[in-house]
Write a structure and sequence with these properties.
Elements (H helix, E strand, L loop, with lengths): L1 H28 L15 H11 L5 H13 L13 H36 L4 H15 L2 H15 L18 H39 L2 H8 L4 H38 L5 H10 L3 H29 L2 H9 L1
Helix pairs in contact: 1-11, 4-5, 4-7, 4-9, 4-11, 5-7, 6-7, 6-9, 7-9, 9-10, 9-11, 10-11
């Protein structure tokens, strides 16, 4: 297992460096100039030239890349061209907000998807199974941005039950901790629901299919022949083996959740990395774009690494497969 994890970590480090390199050159090859914000008659060309030299933008792109990579490996993400603040301070504000949204969405995604999948497998080919299949396909096919707008129109504008934007209400800081907590949860409901429930529909179908495949295996028939209850057969024998591919799917779903968070954060004005990334791309803020891309890449790779480790724990043959092959 140790060797298995070490190999995955080495592959992850190499992958992060590759992604950062591609992102750096794509940003510099795309049209536009980050100094265009200084196109103002009140700012002299000499001042703009000095700013360009100070930021190192007058150097050739390969030299900029080497200097940026050297500082990046030291943990220095640079200074934002738009906010004139250290990028690390911007990330420190945005990362916790994105994690709150992503963790809430991932929890809904796993809980709702697994429960619906198990119920559909238990009641296979029943009316419940057919209705859940139709509902899952319907929800899965709805664009997330459209669903977000419809929920805002319904729950925020028509019924005025839930807030439509931001992470907390104005003036809530002076309230008690329970009121602040309730306000945060209320602001989290709609974006987490849009981000998590739509993906849970696909998880439910995967869970159902995996359970049905396992229930056809010989060892399940053997467990039933021994007189074990259907509940014991279903949960202790079938579910563990059916969960092996589901663990991988959960790890692979993290990029989709983070990618969807970019759109959802903009729609709901959620102050996370997605909104920061979009604004920085339009502003040609190279240091922020590269730093956010690095954090998202690390999160995605860690999610996949966790899935690989979970897969190996559920099925030890995965970790020992290479050794056994030799």
């Amino acid at each position: 297992m140790t060797r298995f994890v070490a190999e995955r970590l080495l592959q992850s480090v190499i992958l992060v460096l590759i992604v950062l390199t591609i992102t750096f050159f794509l940003m510099h090859l795309s049209p536009g100039d980050p100094m265009s914000r200084y196109d103002d008659p009140n700012i002299s060309p000499e001042t703009v030239r000095l700013i360009r030299e100070q930021l190192g933008l007058d150097k050739p792109v390969p030299e900029q890349y080497m200097r940026w990579m050297a500082s990046f490996l030291r943990g220095d993400f640079g200074v934002s061209l738009r906010f004139n603040r250290p990028v690390s301070s911007l990330l420190a504000e945005a990362i916790p907000n994105t994690l709150r949204l992503t963790i809430a969405a991932l929890t809904l995604y796993i809980v709702i998807g697994v429960i619906l999948g198990l119920l559909s497998a238990v009641r296979r080919y029943s009316l419940f199974d057919r209705l859940s299949t139709i509902a899952a396909l319907f929800v899965y096919s709805i664009p997330s941005f459209w669903l977000a707008l419809m929920l805002i129109l319904l729950f925020s504008l028509k019924f005025e039950i839930l807030p439509s934007s931001h992470m907390q209400s104005m003036g809530v800081s002076g309230m008690g901790w329970l009121a602040r907590f309730s306000d945060r949860i209320a602001h989290l409901v709609l974006p987490a629901f849009v981000l998590g429930v739509a993906s849970a529909a696909g998880m439910a179908r995967y869970m159902r299919g995996s359970m049905l495949d396992v229930l056809r295996e010989d060892y399940i028939r053997t467990a039933r022949a021994k007189g074990l209850s259907e509940r014991s057969v279903f949960l202790k024998h079938a579910f563990r083996n059916a969960a092996i591919p589901i663990v991988t799917i959960i790890g692979l779903s993290l990029p989709f959740l983070l990618g969807g968070a970019v759109i959802i954060e903009k729609i709901f004005s959620w102050p996370g990395m997605g909104a920061l990334m979009v604004d920085s791309i339009f502003a040609r803020d190279y240091p922020v774009v590269l730093a956010v891309n690095f954090v998202v890449t690390v999160m995605v790779i860690l999610g996949n690494l966790a899935a690989d480790i979970g897969y190996a724990l559920l099925d030890p043959r995965i970790a020992s497969g290479r050794k056994a092959g030799k």
